[in-house]
Specification:
Layout (H helix, E strand, L loop, with lengths): L2 E4 L3 E4 H4 L14 E4 L3 E4 L8 E3 L5 E4 L3 E4 L7 H8 L2 H10 L12 H4 L9 H44 L5 E4 H4 E4 L13 E7 L4 E2 L2 E2 L5 E6 L3 H4 L6 E4 L1 E3 L6 E3 L8 E2 L3 E6 L6 H9 L1 H10 L1 E3 L2 E3 L2 H5 L2 E4 L2 H40 L10
Parallel strand pairs: 10-17
Antiparallel strand pairs: 1-2, 3-6, 4-5, 4-7, 8-21, 9-18, 10-13, 11-12, 14-16, 14-18, 15-20, 19-20
Helix pairs in contact: 2-5, 5-11
C-alpha cells in the first residue's frame, strides 16, 4: 500500500485520496517502508505541515523522496505527532528550509532532527495526547452530524421544489420572461483612463453552491460609465457558466454585503421580476435536480468539463408558482440553512478549542501531572 502525506490529514492512502489519478510509480521497489507508529514527511512540503503518523496498516510504503523516522520508546508517538503539527514547529520548519524556488524548499533530516521540543514525562505526554484525541473525536462527530444534516436538508428542499413545481395547474415559462440575465465584466477589456475606477468583483470562486463566499474578493478596473451595467444589486441570483462539472450552473443569491460590487463575465447575473418571482425560490429551483438536469442537457461538454452560455440560461424552463407558495418554500429552506449554519458554528468552536488546547498543552502553559 502506497501512502501520501497531506497538510490536513497526515498520511493517507494514495489510491483513495487521489481518486482520479495515480501519483506513484508502477514500480515501487525503491519506495521506503513506513511501519505502524512511524512518521513520514514530504521533504519539500514539511513547512506546510505535510507530515503524518502511520496508523493505517502494519507496514506501508512512501515515495523515496520522503523522510521516514520513528521515536524512542520513551516518547509517545501520538504526543509527538501533535508537537510536529503545532504552529511552533511549522515556523521552525520554515527556518530550516533550503530552496531556490518558492514553496519547494526542502527540510533535510540532518536539520529536522536538531529542532528542540518540549518533552514532559511520558505519562503526561500520553494524557495530553488523549485529551487532544478526544477533541478530534468530537470534531469528527460534529462534521458527520453536519454531513447528515446537509443530506436531509438537500432531500427536503428537493421535495419541496418538486411539489411546488409539479402542483396541479402550475404553468411553465422560460427564465428570460421573469428575469433579466446578463454576463459580467471581461477582464483585460478595459484600458485604464481618466474615467477608470477600481472596484471589487465576484469570480467563479466566489459563487459557491447555495451561497456567495467573499473571503477573497479581487478588484477590477473598469470605465465609470460601465459600472451600472455590471453592478450587482441585493437579490441578484448569480450562476456560474461552468468549467468543472460541479461549477455548471452553480449559484446563490447576492445579499449586497459589498456595494458597489461587480461580477465577472463567467458569472451570470439573474435579476428577477420580484412581483412574479422570489430570488431565493429561483436559486433553490435552479439548484434542484430538475434545474441541474436542464443545464447538463444543454451544456457544451468535454471530458470532465461543461459550460453554458447566456442564450441557454435565458431559455431555462421555470415553473410559475404562486408567490405564497414560493414564500412557503423559501421559509422552509431558510430554516434548513439556519440549522446548517448553526452546525458550522459548532464545528468552528471545536476547532478553536483544539487550537487553544494545543497551544497551552504542548507549550507547557497547562500541565497535567500524572501520579505513578
Amino acid at each position: 500500500m502506497v501512502l501520501s502525506s497531506t497538510k490536513h490529514h497526515g498520511l493517507v492512502r494514495a489510491d483513495e485520496y487521489f481518486k482520479n489519478r495515480q501519483i506513484h510509480s508502477d514500480d515501487i521497489s525503491g519506495y521506503k517502508l513506513v511501519r505502524r507508529g512511524w512518521f513520514a514527511y514530504a521533504t519539500n512540503h514539511l513547512a506546510e505541515g505535510s507530515i503524518g503518523l502511520q496508523e493505517i496498516v502494519d507496514t506501508a510504503c512512501v515515495s523515496p523522496i520522503y523522510t521516514v523516522f520513528s521515536c524512542l520508546p520513551e516518547i509517545d508517538a501520538n504526543f509527538m505527532y501533535r508537537i510536529l503539527k503545532s504552529n511552533t514547529m511549522l515556523a521552525a520548519y520554515g527556518v530550516h528550509e533550503q530552496a531556490s524556488v518558492d514553496r519547494r524548499g526542502a527540510v533535510r533530516y540532518r536539520d529536522f532532527k536538531k529542532i528542540e521540543v518540549n518533552l514532559p514525562p511520558f505519562a503526561e505526554q500520553r494524557r495530553i495526547a488523549e485529551i487532544l484525541n478526544e477533541v478530534d473525536t468530537q470534531i469528527q462527530r460534529a462534521c458527520l452530524r453536519r454531513e447528515k444534516l446537509a443530506v436531509v436538508a438537500g432531500a427536503a428542499t428537493a421535495a419541496l421544489i418538486h411539489s411546488a413545481s409539479e402542483a396541479t395547474g402550475v404553468e411553465w415559462t422560460v427564465l428570460e420572461e421573469i428575469a433579466d440575465i446578463s454576463a459580467g465584466v471581461t477582464l483585460g477589456n478595459h484600458e485604464p483612463g481618466d474615467d477608470a475606477v477600481s472596484l471589487p468583483y465576484l469570480r467563479v470562486a466566489n459563487v459557491q453552491e447555495g451561497y456567495i463566499d467573499t473571503a477573497d474578493v479581487k478588484f477590477v478596473t473598469v470605465r465609470s460609465s460601465d459600472v451600472e451595467r455590471f453592478r450587482l444589486a441585493k437579490g441578484d441570483v448569480l450562476l456560474t457558466e461552468g468549467g468543472d462539472l460541479d461549477k455548471l450552473g452553480r449559484g446563490g443569491v447576492w445579499d449586497g454585503r459589498i456595494d458597489p460590487c461587480l461580477h465577472q463575465n463567467h458569472v451570470f447575473k439573474v435579476r428577477c421580476q420580484t412581483a412574479v418571482y422570489r430570488p431565493d425560490f429561483l436559486a433553490s429551483y435552479l439548484a434542484s435536480p430538475r434545474g441541474k438536469s436542464y443545464f447538463l442537457g444543454v451544456a457544451k461538454q468535454t471530458t470532465n468539463l461543461a459550460s453554458i452560455n447566456s442564450s441557454q440560461v435565458k431559455k431555462t424552463p421555470v415553473p410559475i408558482v404562486p408567490l405564497v407558495e414560493q414564500e412557503r418554500v423559501v421559509a422552509s429552506v431558510a430554516e434548513w440553512k439556519s440549522q446548517l449554519v448553526s452546525a458550522d458554528k459548532d464545528i468552528d468552536k471545536l476547532h478553536l478549542l483544539r487550537s487553544a488546547l494545543m497551544n497551552d498543552l504542548l507549550t507547557g502553559k497547562i500541565c497535567f501531572p500524572v501520579s505513578a
